[in-house]
Write a structure and sequence with these properties.
alpha/beta; 6-stranded mixed β-sheet
Length: about 160
């Protein structure tokens, strides 16, 4: 697990994200924060949150995704229009034990106004990774961007762990 987290931290740093560790709900997470759009007219922040769970279930995926949505809302900056800009996030859980139904829970859903959160599950035991691929209508312009960021910052576990 530490080798995978080190690889993620390296990818985040190389991508220009500010990397830290902090709690996302009850999960100590590796967090990378940066900007997708740096415009003062409508800034859009990016948060990549990678948390470790002892075991991943569909409920764990849903709960962590909600917690990351709350975190993403907290990092939104004011725009030139006197409203808050947007935020995009990747909510990735890693574990050696992943319930097979958890991969079915990895779907994009519109969570709250102004945020887009893409969930991901990384099964280190079986060297598998699943990033949500569906595209909801609400906020559709950002979903592929955030999926691309997830693919950029979350390396394939087979490449890292062998």
């Amino acid at each position: 697990m530490q080798a995978y987290l080190a690889a993620v931290a390296h990818q985040m740093a190389m991508g220009g994200l500010q990397v830290s560790r902090n709690w996302i709900g009850p999960v100590l997470s590796l967090i990378g924060v940066g900007a997708v759009i740096k415009s003062s007219l409508n800034p859009i922040e990016l948060a990549v949150c990678v948390g470790h769970a002892g075991e991943i279930s569909p409920a764990t995926v849903a709960g962590f995704t909600r917690q990351v949505d709350e975190f993403a809302r907290s990092i939104r900056r004011p725009s030139a229009f006197a409203v808050k800009g947007g935020a995009c996030a990747v909510a990735a859980l890693i574990s050696d034990r992943v319930h097979p139904a958890s991969f079915g829970a990895v779907t994009n859903r519109a969570m709250s106004y102004g945020t887009v959160v893409v969930p991901a599950v990384i099964d280190l035991g079986n060297r598998q990774m699943m990033i949500a691929q569906n595209t909801p209508v609400l906020g559709f312009a950002l979903w592929s961007t955030v999926r691309g960021k997830a693919g950029m910052y979350l390396p394939d576990p087979r490449a890292v762990l062998g």
